[in-house]
Structure formats: structure tokens, C-alpha cells
Amino acid sequence: MNTELASPRGAPPGHALGEIIFRYACAGAATFLLAALAGVVVSLFIGGLPAFREFGFGFLTSTTWNPVNEVYGAAGPIVGTLITSFLSLLVALPLALGVSVFLVEFCPAKLSRPIAIAVELLAGIPSIVYGMWGLFVLAPWFAAHVQMPIAMDFAPDSLIGKIFSGTPNGANIFTASLILAIMILPYMAAVFRELFLTVPAQVREAAYGLGCTPFEVIKAVVIPYVRRGMIGVIMLGLGRALGETMAVTFIIGNSHGFPHSLFDSGSTIASTVANEFAEATSDMHTSALIALGFLLFVITFIVLAVARLLLREAKV
Amino acid sequence: MTRAQRRRAFNGVFVVLCSIATLIALSALVMILWTLLSKGLGGLDFMIFTHDQPAPGSPGGLRNAIVGSLIMCAVGMAIALVIGILAGTWLAEYGAGTKYGHVVRFFNDVLISAPSILIGLFVYELLVAPFHGFSGYAGGVALAFLATPIVVRTTEDILTLQPGALREAGMALGASRSFVIRKIIWKSARTGLLTAGLLGFARISGETAPLLFTSLGNQFYNHNLSQPMASLPTTIFQFALSAYDDWQRLAWVGALLIAAAVLFINIVGRVLAREKKHA
Fold it and tell me: Is residue A177 part of a domain?
């Protein structure tokens, strides 16, 4: 290429330098993002290393979490995290699908936009507000209208009595899952909606033209068209639920053992860290909590990475 | 029942189920807003903004927490806007289509959804443990890490939407690439960039988890960033879980303030984004 064209004669001196500086500032900022992510991994790993060294594989399998005797096993919080996340997904997924299908297919055009905005606003409410609502509204209601009747009507040693045993205060794994479900529902519904809108109108109209009912259009045309993306959205919702902290901390009851029933109090990785980190009693306690954080990071990173890979094609 | 009737019945049930799902989602929003208003509005008076948090049993407000939140959010946003807009610009203008661009975009998307409490742990390791103290700086930096990916993503989206003809027109007049970006593209994407900032701000203003062990909280008024600093979310957390009725009442007022602020910022961002589309 002719250099005369690449840098015009009229360019002021230092021009090319400014060009390079700006370009590298931008590239540097982009690189900073990667460095931040790498920094999170490395710092959590280094911080958790003493605990991993001390307890080895038993850190993952032991249920003893005892800051007094300096024995830490993370099985309780790990299982609590997985149970609450999957339960909340179980509740939120059908609801989110219903909301998004309603908005895309059935809702009158005039209502569609306000409802979509309302759903997205629901997704924007800070998690601490959900937590307070869960603790002060949902939990007392749940204790009085669900837990007490079950405790009255079924013997403690019957199967139902065992599944649903627990202190009747409404702060347990199940209510925590419900709150999580309410939190991830609007988020998933909003992304599902965007995903469904990527289906070309011709494809849907062709199906309608063949005489399909809306249900059949969704089932046979829309869902197959965005199947990979849908799995991605589900993984995104799961990623949210796994890492959600404040709402769960309020309502899960915060006990460290292995949960024995659906209505038993428990803890998640995030709630344990939130509760204990600032008041950690020893270096090993701190290290065990950071090790928990490292585990949470690995789990959510895998889930989110898969989600993004699946969603990349859909460009949502 | 004929086949056609059965299909129609199936469809009818499906429509009803979808409508019920929407009703459930909307009633959740209504119930939460109702609780916030009924429990928070009663305690909302002038004292909330003029007095610091009280000891249990005495009157007081939330001034120290509100000021702390504003300061740390401002620090967070200042960092996030600079890095976020530069990185977003790189993704849209220089890195689009390159392999490195794909990598950065991918990990940025992962960062957007990363659990905020882990960012808190990271900043603790980075800024709190080495300097032996919780501080407002650490809180602001933690918030910056949360807002940056959102600003990056929105900036990139907005800049990609700017017509290529703008760039070509600038180049044709002999302007350099960075000049075109700074004086033409950024200018035409002004409202979009503002939206990017607002979305990031809305995200961090209610964040509690990353502040718990970075800024810690402070029961006194303090605008010195090198000291532990109160914030609205951490104060709400502390008050809501306390055993004192008046602290719990203050927690509801705080929750109402935060929710109202976040909803307001979100709506403003949305209106701006919409105007842009119409223009």
C-alpha cells in the first residue's frame, strides 16, 4: 500500500502516536477483562490452597463444619447449593416458558410490551429485597399454612413426615428454592422471549398456514428451532441460582449439616461465605471459606461457559 | 371427540396454562412491591436522609448508609465507565471478527453472570488482606468489577449498531480511525453509552454480597474512602436480621429506597434506549 495514502500529508505531528495510544488503551481495557477473570481464579485458588492441602479430598465429602475444632468439610453447603438450584429450576422453568410463550404468541400486542417490561423489572429488583420478602412474608405464611398442617396430620416417622420434617419456622431448603425460583423466573422468561423472537416469522407463519394450532406451532416448529439456545437459557438460570447469595442467606436457616428433609434448614456455598467470612475465627477458617468460593467458581464457570457456547449461535 | 376437537382442546389448555404462568409472575411483582410499600412507606420521612443509623431503641435515619452507597457506586462507576467503554470500543471497532475478540467477548459474558460474592472474595484477597483493613476503596473496586462487564457488553452492542457509512464518511474526510471513533461514533452513540452506564449502575446499586467483606459497613458517618464504609445494602442486611423492631422498620425503608432507585434507573435507561431507536 502507498504510505502516502495511509498517513495523509496534512496530518499534524504526533497524530500517529495518538492513534497508537488510543488503540492500545482499548486493547488494554479488553485484556483487563481477561486478567480480572484470571485474577479471580488464581486468588481463590491460592487463598483456598491451605484448606485443600489440610483436608484433601475429604473437604468435598465430609459433612463436619466446625470452626471451633478447625475441621472443615464442605459436603453440606455443596449439596445444599445443588438441591436448591435444581429445585428452583424445576419450579421456574415451566413458569418461564409459559410467560415467554404467552408474550410471544397469545398476548394482545398492546399488553405485550408493558408485561415484558414488568417481567424485566422483576429481574432487576436487588436480591436483598427478595431475601427480606422471603424472610418476613413467605416464611411465616409457609410455616403457618404448609408446615404446621403437615406436622399435625402426619406422624413424624411416616414417609411423608420424614420427607417434610423440620422446624416449622419457614426457613428451610424448600422456601429458599421457592425464592430462588421467583428470582430466576423473570430473567429466564426475558431471555426465552428474545430467543423465541429470533425464529423467523415465515417459519411460524408457514406452520400456521398448514393449519397448526398455536400449541403445535410452539411444540413442532419454534422449540425445535431454538432447542440449543433453550438449553443455554436453562444453564444461565442454573448459573444464577448457584451463585445467588443474599436471598438464600436470609431464608435457608444456615445450618451446616447435611440436609435430612425438604423442610430442613441448610446452607449453600454462597450463604456460608456471606455469613462467616467477615467473622472468620482463624486463618484456616478463612482459607476453608475461600476454598468453598473456589468450588463455587468452578461449578458456575462450567455451567455459564456451556450456556454461552450454546447461546452463541442464537446471538441472544 | 374428533381429532380436530382434541387438538383445539389441547391448545385451549396450553393457552390457559401460559396465561396462569404470566399471572403468577406478575402477582409476584405486585406482592413484593406491595410489601415494600406497606412496610417501608410508613417509616419514610425526612430524618432518614438527615440522621445516621441509630442504636436500637432510639430514633435515627440512614444518612451514613446512603452517603456510603453513593460514594462507592460513584467510584465503581468511574472505573467501570472508563474501562468498559474502552474495552467495548475495542470489541466493536478493532477486535470484531478477530479470534482474540471472540475470546474476550466470551469471557466477558461469563463475567456478567459470575456470582457477585466471588468478586467480593477476590477483591478481599486483592485489596483488603494485603493492606490489613476493610475500606471504601475496596468496596468501590468490587462494584467496578461487577459493572464493567455490563458496560462492555452494552457499549459493544450500541457501537455495532452505528451505521458503517458514518465511519466511511469520517475516513473519507481524512480523519484518522481513533478520531472517527472518538468524535463521530461515540458522539452519535451518546445516549446508548449513557444507557450502558445506567444499566451498570442499576446492577451495582443493590449489590450486597461483594460489599460484606470489602467495605464491611460502618455505623458512623464517614466519607473517607480508606476507612470501612457503610452502604445501604449491608446496613439493611444487618438491620433486617436484628431482633429490634425499629431496626427492622429502618431496613424496610432502606429496601424501599433501593428498589425504587433501581427501578427508576432501569426505566430511565429503557426510555433513553427507546428514544434512540425512534430517532
Answer: yes
